[in-house]
Design goal:
The protein has 730 residues and is α/β, with parallel strands linked by helices. It contains 23 helices and 28 strands. Helix 1 crosses helix 5, helix 4 packs across helix 5 and helix 18 packs parallel to helix 20. The radius of gyration is 33 Å and the shape is elongated. The N terminus is likely disordered. Component of the MCM2-7 complex. This is DNA replication licensing factor MCM5. Its EC number is 3.6.4.12. It catalyses: ATP + H2O = ADP + phosphate + H(+).
């Protein structure tokens, strides 16, 4: 896409092509254009809806631009709408001049030079078009669409600086000093400069040479113009292919209305322009680059995102009927990853994540997130990645990424320098592209710590702040995070403490609402059922009838999800709030008591964030049943889910089985002494190396680990990144 953001006045020797063989000066063409303009004026003046005249009123309220629905135009004048769609570049200027004339006649008259009352001279009015039609795929646009009105959807990945684009260029002949004003084609089109001056020389006067014109920039007329890059929505990209992007040109009032990372639905004229002579296109005179000249932008916000937002009355009736059933919650959970056996609580948590809580905006401007983050931590082969893949397919907007292949810039946003202009621009990463949806991060533990830190802000504040290469901005990333990770040793080891098994920093753990320890338990009866289930899944995989039914069910769940997220924003009832408050205080008390008994802090902190997590879970459970109030029943289920996930994870590990005996206490004291001798104050050493060194001296590994935990409690040693131990005091 070299040269996509270049400024300057465009020139071209290409002549205008005129439709229907009519030249602009032809009387037939002028007459028909006048008739069409009159019809446009009638439409703006006389179109009424429910006894109101919306366009007339909108024009008075905002004289700069007018937003027109193509359906209204089709209803008022059925012959105009097809013309506007098939050749918009011819009819949009007529529409705009009609709007300007109507605006002039609607305003109060002013006294002219000769003392008579005259209409005010109105400025330019920009016509913006919108329609209810579904957007077409970016890949389906071809030569047959050139110069026609198209509607596409996507994500803006880059926005250029605002430039001044000439609408009329003033030329002066360098020989006879005669002036001439010529129009510029809109969009990325240039001005057609005549080769010769039309001045007729007098006798004895030197004739004007070929190409005598000089551009006078000061006397030319300009409008603001900006170029954007629109990329396909991630869910529309075919498997294994790279997302395509398309150049957009916006002008006048649409300039600077879009930031990178926004999801847009764009109505525009599919046009072509001559790219700058880059290496690949040199000499290819007939080859033109496509772009879209935008004539209407709709911001696809979170509520509208993912598929058509219009629900039929039958669908709404069906959704309400389903939500009213007593076992609606159970039915939804049975639709979550039906090919995975067991893991009922994980399925319930994934259902809560898909529905999400309610986002809240406080009076002082603080925003509280409504998205639920879930971490699945445990043994290999426990269907963690399958859950992530299911969510990627089911969520209206989802981005799947793997920890090892993701960098901080790839997850948040990167600053890229354009090859032709040497200018910096922003490209949004996975967290920005998934705004309003879900980010699935597999192999979360394999990420580099500095990359993991980059998503801290996105997980709690739901924004991404960028201050790079002179670009300082804040991007939205209102997305849920579903992450899967393995313990450091690959499998979950019951002989290690919770801290060793969950080798993630407290800062990131507190941002997860639910943390599930998924273990591969060896039990004869359970193994037999799982084996039978897996074989059944493989045996019935080829049946086409069931496949159609499954895709239909998935589609239904997607639509129901979309409807619940759009229509329902629950709040806690008074009694539920009291119950939740008491539960939270009790959980904190239990954790404090456990810390006092074992002499070690919980691996997973229980903070106010966890209280907010239970609130969000309660709201999500209420949302599943289309209830606008989260009751005590919802709070109890949310607390139960929180207890079987995060609380169990916090309590897991070796300290459940072992109580300190006097001999063990003595051994721990000896281990502490050796640790202090081994590490000098202020020095640091890898935990693994320290344990290996003391094991060679004949000490038990679990005793050394316990001694380290107790010293960490007393603040005698501290852990840095990658589990490095630093001795703080002797």
């Amino acid at each position: 896409m070299s040269g996509w953001d270049e400024g300057g006045v465009y020139y071209s020797d290409q002549a205008h092509s005129w439709h229907d063989g009519n030249r602009p000066g032809d009387p037939d063409s002028t007459a028909s254009n006048h008739t069409i303009q009159q019809k446009f004026k009638e439409f703006i003046r006389n179109f009424s809806k429910n006894g109101l005249f919306p366009y007339r009123q909108n024009l008075l309220d905002n004289p700069k631009f007018l937003l027109v629905r193509l359906e209204d135009l089709d209803e008022f004048a059925p012959e105009l709408s097809p013309k506007l769609e098939s050749s918009p570049s011819d009819f949009l200027p007529l529409f705009e001049s009609a709007a300007a004339q109507v605006l002039g006649s609607l305003k109060t008259k002013v006294t002219g030079d000769n003392g008579e009352l005259e209409d005010q001279v109105a400025g330019d009015v920009q016509i913006l078009l919108t329609s209810e039609k579904d957007p077409v795929s970016m890949r389906s646009l071809g030569a047959q669409n050139i110069s026609k009105l198209v509607k596409i959807a996507g994500i803006t990945i880059a926005a250029s600086r605002t430039k001044a684009k000439a609408t009329y260029v003033t030329l002066v002949c360098k020989n006879c000093k005669k002036g001439k004003e010529i129009p510029c084609r809109p969009g990325l089109g240039g001005a057609v400069v005549p080769r010769s001056c039309d001045h007729i020389p007098q006798t004895g006067e030197e004739p004007c040479p070929i190409d005598p014109w000089i551009v006078v920039p000061d006397k030319s007329k300009y409008v603001d113009q900006q170029t954007l890059k629109l990329q396909e929505n991630p869910e529309d990209v075919p498997t294994g292919e790279l997302p395509r992007n398309l150049l957009l040109s916006v002008d006048r009032h649409l300039v600077q209305t879009v930031v990178p990372g926004s999801r847009l639905t764009v109505t525009g004229i599919f046009s072509i322009f001559q790219a700058s002579n880059s290496g690949s296109n040199k000499g290819a005179v007939a080859v033109r680059q496509p772009y879209i000249r935008v004539v209407g932008i709709e911001d696809t916000n979170e509520a509208k995102s993912g598929g058509p937002s219009a629900f039929t009355p039958e669908e709404i009736e069906e959704f309400k009927k389903f939500a009213a059933e007593p076992d609606a919650y159970k039915n939804i959970c049975s639709k979550i990853a039906p090919s995975i056996f067991g893991h009922d609580d994980v399925k319930k948590a994934v259902a809560c994540l898909l529905f999400g809580g309610s986002r809240k905006n406080l009076p002082d401007g603080v925003k509280l997130r409504g998205d639920i983050n879930v971490l699945l931590l445990g043994d290999p082969s426990t269907a963690k990645s399958q859950f992530l893949k299911f969510v990627e397919k089911t969520a209206p907007i989802a981005v799947y990424t793997s920890g090892k292949g993701s960098s901080a810039a790839g997850l948040t946003a990167s600053v890229i320098r354009d090859t032709s202009t040497r200018e910096f621009y922003l490209e949004g990463g996975a967290m920005v592209l998934a705004d309003g949806g879900v980010v699935c991060i597999d192999e979360f533990d394999k990420m580099r710590p500095e990359d993991r830190v980059a998503i801290h802000e996105a997980m709690e504040q739901q924004t991404i702040s960028i201050a790079k290469a002179g670009i300082t901005t804040v991007l939205n990333s209102r997305a849920s995070v579903l992450a899967a990770a393995n313990p450091p040793s690959g499998r979950y080891d019951d002989l290690k403490t919770a801290q060793d098994n969950i080798d993630l920093q407290t800062t990131i753990l507190s941002r997860f609402d639910l943390i599930f320890i998924v273990k591969d338990i060896r039990m004869y009866s359970q193994d037999k059922i799982i084996a039978s289930h897996v074989i059944k899944v493989h045996a019935s995989a080829g049946a086409t009838t069931s496949e159609n039914r499954v895709s239909k069910e998935e589609n239904w769940l997607k639509r129901y999800l979309h409807y619940c997220r759009t229509e329902c924003h629950p709040r806690l009832s008074e009694s539920a709030a009291t119950l939740l408050q008491n539960n939270y205080v009790k959980i904190r008390q239990d954790m404090r008591q456990q810390a006092n008994e074992t002499g070690e802090a919980a691996a997973i902190p229980i903070t106010v964030r966890q209280l907010e997590a239970i609130v969000r879970l309660s709201e999500a459970l209420a949302k599943m049943k289309l209830s606008h109030i989260a009751t005590e029943e919802h709070v109890q289920e949310a607390v139960r889910l929180f207890t079987v996930s995060t609380m169990d994870a916090a309590r897991s590990g070796i300290h459940q089985q072992i109580s300190l005996t006097p001999e063990m206490a003595n051994e721990i004291k000896q281990a502490e002494t050796q640790i202090k001798r081994r590490i000098g104050i202020g020095n640091h050493i890898s935990e693994r190396r320290l344990i290996d060194d003391l094991s060679r001296m004949g000490m038990n590994e679990s005793i050394v680990r316990r001694a380290l935990v107790i010293m960490h409690q007393r603040d005698e040693v501290e852990y840095k990144r990658e589990r490095r131990v630093i001795c703080r005091k002797a």
